[in-house]
Amino acid sequence: MTASNCLNSSKPRAVIARLRSWSYLSKALRKAGTGGRDKPPLPKDVAGAVAVETALNTPLSSNAHIDSFPPEVMGEIFFYCLPSEQYPYIAIDDAPMLLCQICSYWRQVALSLPSLWSNFNCDIGYEASASHAMLLQLWIDRSRTTPLSLAFTPTPALAATLKVLVTSVCRWHDIRVALDAEVGRTLVSILGKEASQLESICIAVRERNWDADQLISQLNVLSNLRRLTWDASFLPPALVNMAWPRLTEINIAGRLLSASDSIALLSNTRALEHAYLGVVDPSSESLPSRPVVTLQHLRSLKFYADDPGQIFDNFAFPSLLSLETSRPDDPHALRRLDERSSCKLEVFSIESPLDAEEAVSYLRLPCMQSVTSLGLVINTRNDRVITFLTWNPDTPFDEAILPWLTKLTLTVEKTTDGAIGRMIASRWLPQRLSASLPASLKKVELWYNGDRPLKRGVEYHSVDIAYFKHLTQEGLDISWTCACSFYPLHVQFAC
After folding, report:
1. Strand 443-448 vs strand 407-412: parallel, antiparallel, or unpaired?
2. Hey, is 33 helix, strand or coil?
3. Percentage of residues in the chain with pLDDT exceeding 70?
4. 8 A C-beta contact, residue 70 and residue 77
């Protein structure tokens, strides 16, 4: 069957509509040519590489036949037809099942690619029958020996399908699972050495009447496990107290950790690269003095606490690139962390209100001079911070403040109208013509808190907003929200 016949057939229309546009096909081919992020690379064999290169450099015409492309190129296109969400639901009107309905050639190519069938959601409804288990078995069979990415949730239908999934536990690579007591006990019985390929697991717990510590112990022995997410109303002691020498990413959802728990968890994960600790409660007991622990590989840290300085004072993070946290009680806690770590931050965000003195002292730290993304909440003496952030062309580049800043998120009160607009304009340089100039802002988000008694129809930020409108027309991605203004291009509140 030719491409023309395919496109004029009565087969399902979702993928047909997408491939009817040759610009879409060209875009997919060019993504294929670069390998595409998170997609399988181009074939390494010479013949496949030559075929892709030929396709990329051949002008596409309306008379071209899609099925004249070699399987290697068709396969790359098929990967860009898959649903974009992680763990997509199995559906007959979505790829890869839809691709099998177009023509025999497409079906042959789709069935020859195990990776097309290796990522899916196992939740198939509350009225599952034997045929549903057979459908899951079909996908697992078509994935052959490829590592599997799966999501499943306890339902009355899960018992039958879980038996199918258990047979492939040795291929589990990335799973998201919600646990009741039955599924929790099942996982305890099959994990351990059997799930030898498991690299990432996200666990949400619905019921607590089973031994979660035993599951944590089973996960701890998995040699390939690198990423762990825990989302529950309780925290198993084993998760905090066991050593995790191989974990590179940990995510604790909600408000489960105390400051002492957080220190213990970070101290036990020495290979950690990314950590999200949720909302950390103060420890009920006083924290003992401990030797400083260096987490050599930690690149991103995100948590919110009444006093994050309690945690900072126990660590050094020499590779830290991203820090999102709350305001420390001791304003010198970040300076001490900087002195111990000598890191070069790229992302810095504090969501708690700061006064001007604190904000300026943080922005002067050596670790801040590489920041490209900044988020601050300023509650007093805002003009000083805004003036501090305004680019001064007379200042030598190596002495300038935040010369690499491209994204700015600010929440402010009581600023002089026009100060913020001038500051943003000073950092808007879409054509950076000199190495002595800063990087140009690319994205700005502003929130004006209610800082004055509002009067209907009175605009308190007219000069700032005039700047914003002009910069928007010039191409800056800028949005703002205030209680006294309305501009239809942005989501704002009207008086």
Report:
1. parallel
2. helix
3. 78
4. no
Cα 388 → chain centroid: 31
Domain boundaries, the chain: 3-84+91-111, 344-495
Q: Is the pLDDT of residue 55 over 80?
A: no
Pairing of strands 373-378, 322-325: unpaired
Q: Which two tokens stand for residue 127?
A: 């009225």
Give the DSSP letter of residue 447.
Answer: E
Q: What is the pLDDT of residues 255-312, one digit of tens each?
A: 899 999 999 999 999 999 999 999 999 876 677 888 999 999 999 999 999 999 999 9
Cα–Cα distance, 144 to 130 (Å, whole number):
21
Q: Is the pLDDT of residue 19 over 90?
A: no
Residues 6+ apart with CB under 8 A from 488: none
Residue 242, CB half-sphere, CA atoms under 13 Å: how many? 18
Q: Is 70 helix (H, G, I), strand (E, B) or coil?
A: coil
Angle 158-166/181-190 helices, nearest 10 degrees?
A: 10
- Residue 415 carries which side chain, given as an amino acid letter? T
Report if pTM > 0.70: yes
Rounded Cα distance, 266 and 295, in Å: 8
Beta bridge partners of 354: 378
Residue 204's CB: how many other CB atoms inside 10 A? 14
Contacts of residue 199, Cβ cutoff 8 Å, sequence gap at least 6: 147, 173, 174, 224, 225, 226, 227
Q: Calculate what percentage of the chain has a pLDDT beyond 90.
A: 54
Rounded CA-CA distance 142/138 in Å is 6
In three-state form (DSSP H/G/I as H, E/B as E, the rest C), the secondary structure along 365-428 is CHHHHHCCEEEEEECCCHHHHHHHHCCCCCCCHHHCCCCCCCEEEEEECCCCCCHHHHHHHHCC
